[in-house]
């Protein structure tokens, strides 16, 4: 095989698998995971950056990963060559949506400083903070009016998947069960 990825039980891959289940059902998701496993270049390991390095080293042709790592890699003298060796392609579900992971914030019921926590959460959702995420961390802003960084803009457009995040969360245990059933991580 010529595909590299993190372990199938990693949160990122479980989120993607939950999306596949939401769109296509458990049996199709299991078939997808089985097919992906059969096409792996080596045992799933490492992080998103190491997957890109594996492409650069000629071990893989395709990897699964989050785009925001590319910005950090391009800024790192050692990793820039790895990042320059790949291009970003957004996989699309049959309805036209692309799976996305979301950086989020939550407050527990037991939070001792609720008012301050709410202020922080409101700030993180503000245009100002979204612009910081966009420019410094090269994430796609959740606020439509906030500009993407020049680098992120160069990666092109996609339509985010419309499956509700609560539904993806509900399906994560099913995703984990499937990854374990197909012995994805070997």
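Sequence proposed for the structure above (186 residues):
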């Amino acid at each position: 095989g010529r595909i590299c990825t993190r372990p199938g039980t990693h949160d990122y891959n479980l989120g993607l698998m939950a999306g596949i289940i939401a769109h296509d059902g458990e049996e199709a998701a299991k078939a997808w995971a089985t097919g992906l496993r059969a096409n792996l270049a080596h045992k799933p390991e490492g992080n998103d950056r190491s997957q890109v390095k594996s492409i650069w080293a000629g071990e893989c042709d395709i990897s699964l990963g989050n785009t925001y790592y590319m910005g950090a890699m391009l800024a790192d003298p050692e990793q820039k060559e790895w990042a320059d060796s790949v291009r970003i392609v957004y996989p699309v579900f049959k309805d036209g949506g692309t799976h996305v992971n979301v950086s989020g914030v939550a407050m527990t019921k037991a939070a001792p400083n609720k008012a301050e926590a709410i202020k922080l959460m409101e700030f993180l959702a503000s245009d100002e903070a979204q612009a910081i995420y966009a420019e410094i961390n090269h994430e796609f802003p959740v606020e439509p009016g906030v500009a993407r960084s020049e680098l992120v803009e160069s990666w092109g457009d996609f339509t985010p998947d419309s499956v509700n995040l609560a539904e993806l969360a509900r399906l994560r245990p099913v995703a984990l069960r499937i990854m374990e059933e197909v012995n994805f991580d070997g």
